[in-house]
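Data deposition worksheet. Section B asks for the primary sequence of the deposited chain exactly as it was used as input, without tags or linkers unless they were present during the calculation. Section C holds the resulting structure in token form. Section D is free text for depositor observations; keep each observation to a single sentence. Incomplete worksheets are returned to the depositor.
Section A, Depositor: J.P.
Section B:
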Amino acid sequence: MNKYEMMFIVKATMEADVIKKTADNIKKVVTDNKGKVSEVKEMGERKLAYPIKNEINGYYFVIELEASKEAVKEIDRKTSIDENVLRHIIIKLDEE
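Section C:
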């Protein structure tokens, strides 16, 4: 399994519990695909550089995880489908 870092932006116009549930759903996708979440950082609400889907603010999260390549593809696919997620990116971390 490789180490990855995933950043995603959730719509800030939603209720706080829906924002938290969206982040929990993404963590569940990781664990359902035999991955492991090592750290979750809530970066909070920030103004976007440009409007995305008519949203001007977003709630940022950063997750460090360990997963296989196939699991990362599935995580990417399911995150792309989620309407509450404005943007996401998954980066493979260097081996130390």
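Section D:
The first strand starts at residue 2 and ends at 11.
The chain has a mean pLDDT of 92.
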